[in-house]
Amino acid sequence: MHRTPLVSHRAGTAAPSVRPAFITLLIAVVVIAGARLVLAAAGMQLMGMAEYSTLIPVVAAALLPLRQTLIVGLANLAVGILAYGILLPSMSHASRITVITALGASILVSLAVCRARIAAERSLKGLMVARERLTLLSEASTRVGGTLDVARTAEELAEVAVRRFADHAAVDLFDPVLKGEEPAPGPSAGPVTLRRTAHRSVPAALTAAEPPDSSTVTYPRESMPARSLQRGIPVHGQFTDTAESEECWPTDPNGPGTQAPHSALAVPLRARGVTLGAALFTRSRHRAPFDADDSLLAQEIAARAAVCLDNARRYTHERATSVALQRSLLPQMVPPQPAVQAAARYLPADIEVGVGGDWYDVIPLSGARVALVVGDVVGHGIRASAAMGRLRAAVRTLADIDLPPDELLTHLDDIVIRLQNETAPSSAGLDEDAVAGADVGEFLATCLYMAYDPISRRCTAARAGHPSPAVVRPGEGARFLDIPAGPPLGVGGLPFETAEIHLPEGSLLALYTDGLVESPRHCLDERLERLLEVLSEPKPTLQEACDHVLDLLVDDRTRDDIALVVARTQALDHGHTVAWELLEDLSEVARARDLASLQLARWGLPEAAFLAELVVSELVTNAIRYGGNPIQLRLIRHDTLICEVSDSSNTAPHLRRARTFDEGGRGLFIVAQLSERWGTRQHSDGKTIWAELAVPPATVQAPAPKEMSRTAAAGRSATRPRQTAW
User: Fold this and answer.
1) What is the largest CA-CA distance in the chain?
2) Full 3-state SS string of 569-612
3) Average pLDDT value for the chain
């Protein structure tokens, strides 16, 4: 590629009125010369005409550039000498000398006037160019970096450059920059591959389609952008043919290419010692090529834009970290449950707001029950995500001990208050500036906790400042559940109330955070009504139901993150559960073992009978010895075998390790070793000790519900005489 030093065009050379003025003045010279001859032939005085003829070069100096002014003046002088010196011998020698001297002086005066005018124009043009460049720098400072999005910042740079500086501008970045990562350090020795992030052009600059956004462009080693990235300085030059220009401006592989630029300028985008990419500016032939001053201006604009791009890159990295943290703290999948079929979605907030503290959970409980939880920590960012993780862990811990929903929220409220005290800034050991700059915002959260029992088909729920869930019962439309509204977590001092709702099998529950129903363009009531309308539209699967809700309710103006859980209730009928009433007599232990073994045989699980008999024996023995009437044994069969023994005592047993010669203390230890899980559940009239056993694949089909109903009735009738005697 041929490159020459670039100079700006001389002022005035391109003015459209120069050529007509030049021709007009030459015609005037000829006309005045002819008039002189005609008047001289008529014997009239010529000196007045000679004096006026000296004004022609001065007029030319006011209208024409230096070269054309000199041509007009010399032509006027030549014609004057010819007219007065040769064709008019009647004039005296002194008159001829005077006229010729006047004409020569007019040429000198016109040249001086022209030089002064050109100097003034150059000075004025310099001031205008300086003002234009300052305006461009100011516009770049105000318009570039208005967002923290890398692609949008690159588009703003291209828009500012095309408006005042170039006919076409493109911003090419390294792939890691778009992902928020830092590109590999050091210049590349071979071809450079970048991603076309933004490009803009004036309407007349290009004749064909350009490389599309986010397309990959590869620059050869000797191309201007590659050399600019290797050296770390701007590189500019002119092109003599299309082949040379394609080294700088790759064409679209799927299109006819672009018009070859006349002049191009490549500037590296560097900020904080990191090279992010390159900015490429081109001008067509109707504009002056780039010069050294343009290179300095482009370097200044690129330096400011690079800082904004690096800020956006760092924010993208931090946001990606926050989103990764948020998603790692949420359930990676919703495990299958015997009580419900569930699907969940989480959408982070937009890039300007940042990740929030919304969370959801589906927690298995004892007795084949399940807990559905959604919550929202007030605020955004890493702090809200970390607080969300702590609250979710606390909810899981409290759910494992089977607390009722109102008691669970009470304990969770105490945890939030303790977290407030832990995160509040203290002046001890900190200077005033550190205390003043600390985050002193209140730590508040909302939560909705629901526990559903597939056997009784009843759901108990409590909420702390959270929106009410929606329910769609079979054959009915969607409506909101009437759950007493408690205060948000972290307020303290106020109680929470529990609501108990009957949910038929196949009911659809929708739990959500406020980001789903809040919008700046609509009032809350309208959004809630819209949610009920969307939920009333049946969908084949829960996944499709989640997507349908989000598609119709989430818009571009949604500013908060969203957590959504959609669950369909299931029921465990008599084919999956059976219960017996036992007397407070140790002889009942043998009968409990026999009942459990017989029932497992009917369920086709004879392989599990041995472990079940051991667990039932230990649990029933403890209930008879340390509990009180009524005593109930219940078996629940699903993916696991659940053995439950209930009594009227509120004293919870504790697992302990018996010494060698101790006669007791090994019952719960045996249960813990034989079962997958075990625990204690408190209720209003006593407690329930439960244990889950892994079962082998069934070899016999489970009996039909009617047959199981007869089996359960037979079991109950077998216990009635003993209940009567008791």
Assistant:
1) 166
2) ECCCCCCCEEEEEECCCCCHHHHHHHHHHHHHHHCCCHHHHHHH
3) 77
